[in-house]
Amino acid sequence: MPTLAVIIVAWNVRELLLRCLAATEASLAGADIATQIIVVDNASHDATAAAVRQHYPHVTLLEPQRNLGFVGGNNLALRWLGFDRPLSPPAATASAAGTRPDYVLLLNPDTEPQGDALAQLVQHLAQHPHLIGAGPRLLYGDGSLQSSRRRFPPQATFFWESTPLERWFPRNRWAQAYHYTSPTDPPATTHHSVDWVVGAALLVRGTAIAAAGLLDERFFMYSEELEWQARLQQLAPPPQPDSGARIAYIPAAVVVHYEGKSSEQAPLTRHLHFQRSRILLASLWYGMPFARQYCRFVQATYLWELLIETGKHLLGHRRSLRRQRMWVYATVLTGLRIPTITRNDGERWRTPMSNTTIHPEPGLAMDWSLPQTARAKRVDDISLQAEHDTTRRHFRRLLMALTLFVGIATLVDVILFVISGSPDLYPSLILDTFFLGVIGITGWFYRRKQVGMASLCLSATAIAAALFVLTQYTSAASNGAFIVMLIALAPTVALPYVSTRTFRVLGSIVAAVGLAMIAYLALLLIGEGVPTDVVIGDMVGAAIAVTVMLFLLWQFSRQQRSLVTRLRERTTELEQLQAGLEQQVLQRTTALQSTLLNLQTQNEMQEQLLSEIRKQQSLIQDLSVPVLPITPMVLVLPLIGTLDYTRLELIRQRALEAIEQAHARTLVLDVTGVPELDQKGAQGLLMIAQATQMMGSQCVLAGLRPELAQALVQLGVDLRSLRTYATLQRALDAVGPQAVTAAR
Fold it and tell me: Do 527 and 409 belong to one domain?
């Protein structure tokens, strides 16, 4: 008989929950399925828990003290059923509910299964072992079809689902492919496999949950069933390769879904949780760059909706509704955040995880916790990451300021060129284009987190901009300016990778060479007829600009150098920690192998002991039914103790074997040692007597005490076919002469 656990997570939907429980029990009433219903009450305010206790006392009720959401509530019930799969090295945990069920059904409280819908889902999974889940056909409360079958969403789907684009273009090709409504897709009235189904009524095989783990609790609600079903199909091993999609859509099973009765009580959190879950899903599947773009798009759509609602409010159209929507949209705009997702999280459902579980023996101490130094290094890593983020933030601000400066300068040059058309502006336009290109390359390096290369590009751009004034005179001055730029750039870029003393030496050399080059350029310009005051002013301005830029870059490089130094130290510490962990793993592996060898030795010893015990049991059985030959033709079988069915079978077998071996004519059953004789015992003795007579011998019952005789009379047992005697001696005296005569 298959076992099924139905999990219902409820929040302030008491009446709907009671109707759901009644429909669920009715749907499974005629099926041969062992069912356990679990209700998780997420801190409801409408006396949901009390109603469940009153009307359905046999239902298991779990009551967390706060709202865990759809994911947290279902995981609480799954852990209670024993499906908890920790991500850290496992430890032996006891299940509160004992044996895990074969199937688990996640059911919304605002649903009503129709007929035997749930039984059909279970039977379909039982008949198709390659499937890991199934979903029914969902209908709205008015009887219309709810789209419940889905394909895994491509990137384009994120930008139209639940956005204004979905309202403007409801029948686009992405929507049709996503909802299985394109002309080439099977109709909604036929059984077929799909990528995933809506989680309002989702049946999952228990072995798949044990292999893939629980729902991801970073999802409070929405999109959690999509990520979970994708992970189940990826991590649950298929019975045969190339099994294809392993979620079944069963239209014969119908469930009515009164959608959103819990979430509509809190529209603000509903919108926020929906968009946060979508952004988290985009981060997990398509990476952080795509998630950032999608988050900006969502913010733009909510800003558009906010502007529309504001305009309607100003025009006086249903002001209370507009105020509520404005508040919701503004809250979503300020509450959206891009989650921090690591690469391992993004690849978690794509890369199969190990299904091996280690259960250490009670006598073997397994310390899986990190040492105190490792936990301290975690704190160091967090502070180091925070410092690195601060540096990148300052760098981004500097890059934005420089981009704004160069952009304004380029715009001014373009306007002047359009107005005047003077060819003298060509060098400025070329230089502006060069600066914009360098800034673009800098931004590209920054987005790839290559801060060193970004610093190099930014340094080149900043110094070139500072020396721009020197390039307006002669070719010699221009060449000299670029030489000064390259010389000044060297120590700034090299600072993170050289010692302080080396940097001071390089800085002194750069300062001397820079002053010499500026003086040389000044003499060249004066010799070419440029007024002395103009040259001095330009050179002083250029020197001040170069000094300021070099100082700023020097400060930035000092921070980078501190980061590089700490990163090198952490790398060394991590290598040492890894070596220590490898040594611990080796030691624990050796200990496990030794324990395994001891267990194998113990198993062999236990097998030997079991063999000896079996031999002794056989000997004891033989001794418990002894057959004594009194004469060659008379056998006595003394009976001692209670006569149960098993022992009577053994007595009959031993008696018949002894008669056949000894060719005896008479078998005496001595019941002197039997304390009491019930109807089953008497019937067993009669069967022994009948079997003896069928072999051509007679059976005599001896030792029949008065209390035994009275008990047999009260039971109505007919012993007239047997010769009975009060004592064994009388029986032997009676059968002895007859046996001698028969032997002659």
Answer: yes
